[in-house]
Amino acid sequence: LNTSQTGIHGDIQVRWDPPPTADVQKGWITLEYELQYKEVNETKWKELEPRLSTMVPLYSLKMGRDYEIRVRSRQRTSEKFGEFSEILYVSFSQTGIEFVHCAEEIEFPWFLVVIFGTCGLAVTVILILLSKQPRLKMLIFPPVPV
């Protein structure tokens, strides 16, 4: 972390490893990386030009702000990028910098399973009771004349 003399802006160096499935060490594939970053409250990502290096400096980030950083790669000969990495949260404070690596977890909606399961069970019980009671069956499902 390098801070400006005024303490308003800071620079960081972001590094990452290539995807584990890509054999870039032996030179079979050459990958380009695109880094995107934004402040946590913003909606639009700022993109840096694709580059071959696995480290990128980010300049003039505002102190006292939180940033999100993500990276994606593509083969140099390809037009399309792969999926983005997990988001790296960077928090700038006046005393230093904090990195928070957070994987977005999706929780299974168990409450919906319970609600639909209960409704399904209730409908099944009602249908069984109605099929066993001939008078109720005749009342609810009148015979159709032929």
UniProtKB/TrEMBL annotation:
InterPro entries the record matches: FN3_dom, FN3_sf, Ig-like_fold, Long_hematopoietin_rcpt_CS
Keywords, ordered alphabetically: Glycoprotein, Membrane, Receptor, Signal, Transmembrane, Transmembrane helix
Organism: Struthio camelus
Similarity comment text for this entry: Belongs to the type I cytokine receptor family. Type 1 subfamily.
Domain of life: Eukaryota
GO molecular function terms attached to this record: cytokine receptor activity
Main location, first listed in the record: membrane
Gene name of this polypeptide: GHR
Places the protein is found: Membrane
Record-annotated Fibronectin type-III domain positions: 1-95
Membrane topology value: Single-pass type I membrane protein
Name listed for the protein in its UniProt record: Growth hormone receptor
Positions of transmembrane segments: 108-130
GO cellular component: external side of plasma membrane
Any Pfam family the entry gives: fn3
